[in-house]
Amino acid sequence: MTIPADIKYTKDHEWVRIEGDTATFGISDHAQEALGDIVFVELPEIGRTIDAGEAYAVVESVKAVSDVYAPVAGEVIEVNEMLEGEPEKVNTDAYGSGWIARVKISGEASLELMSDDEYTTFLEE
Amino acid sequence: MSELAKTPLFDEHVTAGGKIVPFAGFEMPVQYGAGALKEYTAVREGSAGIFDITHMGQVRVSGADALPFLQYVTTNDVSKLASGQVHYSALLNEAGTFIDDITTYKISDNEYYLCINAANRLKDVAHLQEQAAAFDVIISDESDDTTLLALQGAAAQSALQPLVDTDLETIGYYRFAQVKLSGIDAIISRTGYTGEDGFELYFPNAQAVDVWKQLLTNGADPIGLAARDMLRTEMGYALYGHEISDAVTPVEAKLMWITKLDKGDFIGKAAVEARKAAGPKQRLVAIKLTGRGIPREHYKVFADGTLSGEVTSGMFSPMAGGVALAYVKPEHATSGELSVEIRGKAVPAERTTLPFVRSNVRR
Predict the structure, then answer these.
(1) Interchain pair B294, A63: CB under 8 A
(2) ipTM of the modeled complex
(3) Left (φ > 0), alpha (ψ -120 to 50) or beta: where does A51 sit?
């Protein structure tokens, strides 16, 4: 399991990479491993405004349906359409080609975000 | 909740990377390290998958009245079974609804062997014992002593043959033989729940680990409950608690082919005949989503925009996409535009035929 240092994590096992006023979202390696084989991803619509903590996407494994929560608030400006045909990218490259959506950050609203070290500690607890 | 049981293979599942979950009162592997999709693919694409299904129950019925007893308590026509033959059948209550679905093995004129669902075991055995009072039969619940493995897939026969003293080629579809498996007495039938060629092996618990290890050595891949459910759903095979339950009769469940109304009296017959005459309250249909999504159990099914029923088993099939078995109002079994409600949205679906993917059983 990998936990990159350049991104932040939530207690719900989402990750966020903030670059200027945009943020990219995905689920952590720990999350994909716990879910098992991802066979379907429901992406948000471009232009949708989402609050921090709001369910903005759904990932489905063979047996389970799971909501994915937004780490920060924003307007969806891009979604990873590749996941419609290759949802398994969430399993094989959770922090790279398995990203789910990109938002233009609006306001300060945010879930509690952890550094890689804090997330590592969180997972051990 | 009472403590969960373990099969004799529990430690082997853990060793093989099994992710253990509670299932029908047992701690069972839902998947192993490679994941459910890889396990599914192994079975569908030529390997041999080995499934620990020891949680299922086995009941031996013996005595002079074994045949009339089973004719009375099960739905299929037991008089048509030859020794060494198996058939799919069911136990109904007087209301004509399902106590369980079972397989019946004819060992001899006075001896039969039933395989029953784990979750229904105590209920089934109590029912059989109660009904047995009027017959000269002995009911023995052998579940606790019996290991049951399914070995499924194109390579099943070649993986199993070295362990068995009988030429497996001589065992036809839904036939069985009493053989020596690794030197011990076993029942091996050419049956399964996957739509692939393969066998089910019944033998004493003491040999479970030895047989399991030998089959792995012979190339079999361990398969968990998640892949097992994918494989059975693709075939449209009913699962108790989903397509069948004590709320439906064989008329609704499309299981009149195992319910022989012409064989004489049996428990539930009058109720089934009445339901057949009145028409079913709902009908089981096979559907395939034409829009994106995965239909899941209990999702609502609509016909022409009005609520018609719900999904009983649904899945993402790597070969067929989003597919499901669902109960709908009788008129919607054949007409009306169907859709499945997924997270508040109507996803269009079409009726299809079973199985959802090609069956490779050896008929």
Answers:
(1) no
(2) 0.89
(3) beta
